[in-house]
Every structure is written in structure tokens, then in C-alpha cells.
Design the sequence.
DNA sequence: GATCTTTCTTAACTTAAGTCAATGCATCCT
DNA sequence: AGGATGCATTGACTTAAGTTAAGAAAGATC
């Protein structure tokens, strides 16, 4: 398995602007170079999908065409729900552009469990377990997603065996990431988690209001405010007392 | 995908005794009934592996033989390390019997991130990312594990395409479980997490000292002690005063 | 059975997040 | 401009976990 090498070469997409509100009408992310599957290049979002997949597998022209013709890409408006607690779905998503969040309702309060941004998979546990979801899924920004049901996937996995491999490799990668961030969450304090967020997902700070970041970090907005104050005071220790 | 049905029918193994110290020399878990692959039945541990796998896939006699002949099952002594922080490995495990824990060292203190028991997979993120592990892996009990390197897996996935499907299905199942427990950890208080543990993994309370449970729950032993006191006082509110 | 060791509990005190409430500061609306 | 709304900050107070230290209880050893 050469996934480690693969991951090293996967450069993140470069944002065109800070915050998606500031430059309206423009795509938020640059369109990446991608290997040339003929049918595919017309649509920049399909192109983006193949750019991502090319890091993990070499699809034949036929497979690429088949995948493109499945026509899996959909746009969801800001505020639109993909899933509500209590429902069950067999649908998974993959974010090509935009921002989706998952949260659960605890005593009437939204507790955000994840933000899904460009190149993130959204695989609700209920697609596997069949149990009613305890999570809500909604779009914080108008988002362009790859949409795939289990049934559809199943069908095409049989037709194109190399998809099976692709799915397994991606599952493994995402599993490792999930484990790693779980471990981080467990071992870091709220302050360290915030600093980790600043370091590793700085884009989120621009795209998400602070009270939602707080919820994601597992604390109250007031606490995040105090943490930020603490940090800024520590960084500027001088120029006090006269 | 019929994994939801599959999961419903997967009954947990029944422990023979409470705590592995009490009944020495006896197997801790009953040996399950399993479909009859001829080569396999000799060894109860291989039998157990196939019992588990049969819930997810029907292997041909040839595939079953191939899998058995890979000779992947090993015993590790109590206290033995499978992985240390700083190292990288391509080896994953699957617990047939025993108890393994992962932890990281924070300021010289062991912070337990997971207990792996019967039927749990152990897939260190470094097998995928290639980065040095931040986690230690060691056996809390003498354990019997399926041992599999990426290279070996890779080789056999090519030879036996249905293994590819098996791996993907298992990855998906484990991914869903990982997500679910992450969400739980985020949304529950330490006290609720303890109660959840009592309800869903009661065996652990017998097999693991309290200070390690506390670490796993993300709190100090003293706090767990207080939490338990709080709970027991709540359950026995009467018979006080005079 | 007495001793040593490990684990668990308790208590007093500290720390940081939660809670509640008030204020400041944008932006949006008409 | 004025008012409403939503979000971030601040302060006073509460709560629960962390810290430190001392014993009690349970197990292991000889």
C-alpha cells in the first residue's frame, strides 16, 4: 500500500479569497489540474472529483465515463437539510464545494459534531447501521455534493470491481483520519483544541460564526471568548503597567 | 447493502465467567457455532474468526482454506507491546480473545484512548498515513490476535477479489461505530459517559482497573470515584436521617 | 497471617468551564 | 436615521473536574 506517499503529494486546494461572502459570484476554490478523461472536463465539479480520485486510483477511460454518467453531483442551498434526527437514509455525500455541518440536539441545544468542507466525505452511520440517525445534517453554505445511495453504489461496485478497491482505500484513509481526530479530541484541552483548529483548519474560522466553533469544540461561546482573550494576552505580554 | 440486517443477527459472545482472573485456565468466552469449513474447525480461534466473518460474507471453501493457511493468528503475552509511539508499522490486528489498549503519553501520563476486546479491529492510523504513531498499543491480558500487514493484505486482495469486498464492508461498519462513539464522547458529560460504559461494555468494568477506566473516560481516578459515589447516592436516596 | 503493594476513596483547596445577565457592536431592514 | 436582530464580550457567581495529600481497602507475597 502506497497510500502514505499518495497523501504526501495531495496538495490542498488554494482558496481564492478569505470567507465566501466577500467575493460574490466567484468560485471559492481554484479549479485544480486533473488528468484528462475526455467526457469529464466540461464540468469543473466533475473535474474536481476526478482530481481527487486520481490520487488514489487510475480509472480507465471507460470507468471514468461510467462514473461521470452516473450523474451524482447536486447543488444544495444554504440552510437545506440532508438528514434529520430520527430519519434513516442510505445516502452518503462527498463535498466538492461548500460547507455542511452535523449536529445533535441535546436539551434543545445544537451540539455541532462536525464541519464538512471541500474533499470531506459525509457518511452518516445510519447508512450502515440502518438505525435512526441521532444527527442532523444541514448546509451552512450553498454546497455542491456528490450524492450516492448504498443501492446505487452496490450496483456499480458489481459492475466495476475497481470501484470496490477505491472505496476500501478511501474508507481506510477516512477511518485513520477519524481515529486521529478522536484521539486529539480526547487528549487535548479546549484551549489546545482551539489552537489546533486555528493551525489545521484556519479556513473554518472565516466561514463559521464563533458560537458554532465553540459548539464544535465542545464548549460554550462565552468560554471560547475567554480562551481567545487568554491567548491574545499571552501573546502580547509587554506594554502593560504605565 | 443488507448490513443492517446482518448486524441485528450478530449475537454477542457470552462470557463464561465475570473477570478473567477468577476462573483460570478456562476460556473466557464460549466458542461459537460457525459454518463448517473443513480445514478450519480444528482450531477454535480460527473457528471464531470464521464465525465472525460469516456474518458479512460467504467465503468459498477455497477462499476459506486460503485464509486459514495464511496462518495469521498469534498469541501475545500480557504486557507485551504491539506498537510504541514514534514507531511506524504496517500491521493491523483483530482481537479473537483478550484485551488490548491504546494510549498516548501526555506530560508523562498515560491517556488511554481505546480498549480493544473480542471482535474489535485494531488499525493504527500509521498503517495508512505512514507517519510515526503517537499511540502505544499493549496487551492488558494475554491475547490472541489476527495479525495482518498491509503488504500481505495487498497481495491476497489481488488473489481473492472477494476479500476486497469483505474489507470494505468491515471498514464501513467500523467507521460507523467509530463515528458514533466519537459523537457520544462529544455530547455526553463524564458521568453520562461512565453510565454509557456500564450499560454498553459492562465486561470492561470487570477486566480493567478503575483508574484506567477513568483515563479512558477522559477524567482522573478521583473524579470517577466521586461520580460513582454521586450515582450510588442518587440510586439509594432513602434510609438516611436517624 | 503479617506485610507490602496497588488501587480506591475521601477531604481541602484550586482551576476552568458553565450559567446568567448586561453591554457593546455590527449588520440588516424599512 | 432609528430600531431590531444576532453575535461577541465581559463580569459575578456556580459547578464540577483537577490537584495534592492522606488513609482505607483489596490483593499479592512470603
Sequence:
Amino acid at each position: 500500500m502506497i497510500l502514505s506517499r499518495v497523501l504526501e503529494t495531495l496538495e490542498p486546494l488554494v482558496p481564492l479569497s478569505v470567507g465566501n461572502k466577500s467575493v460574490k459570484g466567484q468560485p471559492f476554490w481554484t479549479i485544480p489540474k486533473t488528468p484528462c478523461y475526455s467526457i469529464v472536463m466540461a464540468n469543473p465539479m466533475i473535474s474536481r472529483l476526478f482530481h481527487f480520485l486520481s490520487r488514489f486510483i487510475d480509472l480507465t477511460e471507460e470507468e471514468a465515463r461510467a462514473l461521470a454518467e452516473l450523474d451524482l453531483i447536486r447543488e444544495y442551498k444554504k440552510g437545506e437539510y440532508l438528514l434529520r434526527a430520527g430519519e434513516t437514509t442510505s445516502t452518503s455525500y462527498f463535498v466538492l464545494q461548500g460547507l455542511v455541518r452535523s449536529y445533535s440536539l441535546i436539551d434543545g441545544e445544537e451540539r455541532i459534531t462536525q464541519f464538512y468542507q471541500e474533499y470531506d466525505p459525509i457518511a452518516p452511520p445510519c447508512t450502515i447501521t440502518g438505525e435512526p440517525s441521532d444527527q442532523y445534517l444541514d448546509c451552512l453554505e450553498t454546497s455542491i455534493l456528490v450524492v450516492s445511495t448504498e443501492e446505487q453504489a452496490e450496483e456499480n461496485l458489481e459492475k466495476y470491481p475497481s470501484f470496490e478497491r477505491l472505496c476500501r482505500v478511501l474508507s481506510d484513509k477516512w477511518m485513520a483520519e477519524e481515529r486521529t481526530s478522536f484521539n486529539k479530541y480526547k487528549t487535548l484541552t479546549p484551549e489546545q483544541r482551539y489552537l489546533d483548529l486555528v493551525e489545521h483548519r484556519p479556513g473554518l474560522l472565516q466561514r463559521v460564526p464563533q458560537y458554532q466553533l465553540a459548539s464544535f469544540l465542545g464548549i460554550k461561546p462565552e468560554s471560547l471568548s475567554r480562551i481567545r482573550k487568554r491567548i491574545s494576552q499571552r501573546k502580547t505580554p509587554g506594554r502593560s503597567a504605565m
Observations:
- The domain at 9-187 of chain B is CATH 2.60.120.10 (Jelly Rolls).
- Chain B has a mean pLDDT of 83.
